[in-house]
Design a protein that fits this description.
Blueprint: E1 7-15, E2 18-23, H1 30-41, E3 53-57, E4 60-66, E5 69-74, E6 81-84, E7 88-91, E8 98-106, E9 121-124, E10 127-134, H2 140-149
Parallel strand pairs: 2-8, 8-10
Antiparallel strand pairs: 1-2, 1-3, 1-4, 4-5, 5-8, 6-7, 9-10
């Protein structure tokens, strides 16, 4: 990791070849969505299954740019640790680094049935990334799965 790489309050899960960076206020469900993605990948192949998902980091992650891509790494003190509501902090397998391919903003004020095209991307450390805004109270997992499996019209 590059010295001084910023730490942000977020979780990240490697899904296939790219990471999903999950942002949102405390209590919005970042850890829950991370766990749901990992659990979905562990399901038998079929409807709803993901080919691969592994935790990168939970609660705090480092981000840095490299060759025009945004890399995400776990905060060293939290590597391999995931909060599971009702169980506390659990130790699980993790990836040490991943390229971010999607940003999910939970409890997003701009979450809408038909999102504004201006809201469908976000800029992080100079890298423009696809963004999915999930309104407070919406179930995030189905929206993330749909985003990963479909293309905009």
């Amino acid at each position: 990791m590059t010295a001084g790489a910023p730490t942000i309050h977020a979780s990240a899960v490697l899904v296939g070849a790219k990471a999903v960076l999950i942002r949102g206020p405390s209590g919005a469900g970042k850890s829950r969505l991370a766990y749901d993605l990992i659990r979905t990948a562990a399901q038998p192949t079929g409807i709803g299954a993901l080919p691969f998902a592994r935790l990168v980091g939970d609660d705090r992650v480092h981000v840095e740019t490299h060759s025009g891509r945004l890399l995400v790494r776990p905060a060293a003190a939290l590597a391999g640790r995931l909060e599971v509501h009702g169980l506390g902090i659990r130790q699980i397998a993790y990836e040490p680094v991943a390229v971010v391919g999607l940003v999910v903003d939970l409890a997003a004020a701009d979450g809408a049935r038909l999102p504004d095209p201006q809201a469908e991307t976000t800029l992080i450390s100079g890298v423009t990334l696809p963004r999915l805004e999930v309104a407070a109270g919406m179930q995030a997992l189905p929206l993330v799965l749909a985003s990963l499996r479909t293309n905009p019209d």
